[in-house]
Amino acid sequence: MFANHLKYDQVIEACEHSLKNLKTDYIDLYQIHWPAGSFGSEIVPIEETMSALNHLKKQGKIRSIGVSNFSRTQLQEASHYGRIDSLQPPYSLFWRSVEKDAMPYCIENKIAIIAYSPLAQGLLTGKFGFDHKFDPQDNRAKNKLFQGENFEPAQIALEKLRLIAQPHNCTLAQLALAWLIAQPQSHAIAGARHPEQVTANAQAASVQLSTEDLHQIDSIGRIVTDHLDDSPVMWNW
Fold first, then answer.
1. Model's pTM, two decimal places?
2. How far apart are CA 53 and CA 59, in angstroms?
3. CB 187 within 8 Å of CB 106
4. β-pairing, 27-32 with 62-68?
5. Is the model's pLDDT at 145 over the cut of 90?
C-alpha cells in the first residue's frame, strides 16, 4: 500500500483488489510501502491503518503485516496497534542507516528485516565505472551513492572487496548479498533482469563467510558509509 492509500476503507479495498488480481484467498505478507505523509500525502493516523490491517488478518485475508521505509519511531508507534512482522528498508553494505535506527528494535522484537536495494541499485555488482552516465530518467541518476563525493569512495571499496570475493570464487554481488544475509534478522530482495541473474543471486546463500571475512567486509563498506549523512532516503528526490 502506498502512502496515499492508508485510510481504513482504502486499505480494505486495496486488499480486495489484490486478492482478485492474484486469484488467491489470502496474501502472506501485506505491507505499508511508505508511511503516511510521505511525498506530500495525507497524514492518516497509523492506528486507523493498523485497524484495517488487523481486520484483514482476523478475516484470514492476510497472514502477516509489514511496513517499509519506517523509522524506529514510526515502527514502534505502529507496533502499539498490532504485531508488525517485517520492516523493508533500503539496506546494503553501502547504505546502512537502518543499523543506527530501526535494526536494534527489530532484533529485540524479532521483526524480520527484508532489505531492498541490497546491491545498492547495482553499484555493488562493480559494473558501473567512473565514466558511466545514467539516463536522467533512470532513478539511479538521483541516487546519492552514484554521485561524485560518494561514487569515488565506492570504487575504492569495490577494488578491496574483489580481493575477498576471489578466494571465495564468487562475484561482488554474491559477496555483498552473503554479507547482508549474515546480519541479524536480515534477508535480501535482489532485483534481476534475466534468469541467469536470479540463479546467481540465489547462489549467494552458499557463500560461506568467516567472522574475519565479515569484519573485513564491514570495514571496507565503511569507506563509503562514513561519508554519508544520517538521511534514511537514498535518493535526492
1. 0.91
2. 10
3. no
4. parallel
5. no
